[in-house]
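Below is how a single chain appears once it has passed through the pipeline. First comes the sequence as given, then the structure the pipeline wrote out for it. We keep one example in the README because the format questions we get most often are answered faster by looking than by reading.
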Amino acid sequence: VSRRRFLAVAAGATLTVGFLPGCNLPVIPKRPAAELDDAIGWIRFGDGRYTLVLPRVEMGQNILTGLKQVACEELDVPWEQVDARLHASHTIARVRATVGSESIRDFAEPLAQACAALREAVARGQGQDQLQATARPRSGLRAFRAGARRHVGRAPAMEQGEDIVRGRPLYVADVRREGMVFGRVLRAPASPELASSLLSMDEAAARAVNGFVALVRDPLLAQMQSEGVGIVARTPGALDRIEQALAPRWQTEGAFDAAFVDGRIDIDRALAASAERAHQVHDDTLGLEGPWDIELRFDVPLAAHAPIEPRAAVADPGDGSGMDLFVGSQDVFYQRDVVGKRLGLDDDQL
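Resulting structure:
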């Protein structure tokens, strides 16, 4: 499946298309575990309804439904009284990236604590601004209490399930803004770890395609060692026609054949070359001098971790003072930080 990167920007008097370079190895930012004070911002009450701002990213793991079950149980309200929403970088405090299957383990209890505090505050007639939460034992939380429960342990209809089946606009690629144009970065059909560059293209033919807006050549389009060529069009369909007309030809240096890959992942070959290891399972200090034994060994296959879904991002510069970004990401705060650093924008401008 071809990996294509889309960029949509709002068109103004001057069209500006900006692309971010890929990084060598994505680094998952280390952030502290969620606390009760953080969780207070995940659940709100107003006009007789509750809003759950999900502190995790929904990626098909159905966490939107799972954490809503926790919230409804602790609030002791019907399913229909809670609206579940995905978070944005300006709607909740910074949270960890959604990784490691930790959403229920690390986020269910803080959410339940916050919901318990809000339930009691609403019963007293207090507003959201007066909410003060004090941690209580897990045994005092309805969502974790043994016995019959209304929501936790049941099988409710999946949140957004009907919307997904009916094809309603839920994804970044569905976002439309006034005057929007569409972009794509073309690259050599090879790993970005290999040096690749454009040999030739038919620019005149591409410009003649109906809907053509711009051809972008910029070092910022590089991903690792792979040169990128940007095309911009009035419609998504025009991108395909422009790419076909452009007919780019690429030069790639080297190749990753099976022997090369096998050599890179051969742990015995690596240990024979040096006993030093970049990663350790434990903090034990092993003496590098003299003989030593491995009493137990596990060999696992290399994890193939290559996303194949279409990627999309939308950037709306508005009046030019900042930018609204729509991204499909496991960490929208990380995306905001990277874009802000590249473009010289503060957090409140993104």
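The CA atoms of residues 217 and 322 lie 24 Å apart.

See the next section for the split statistics.
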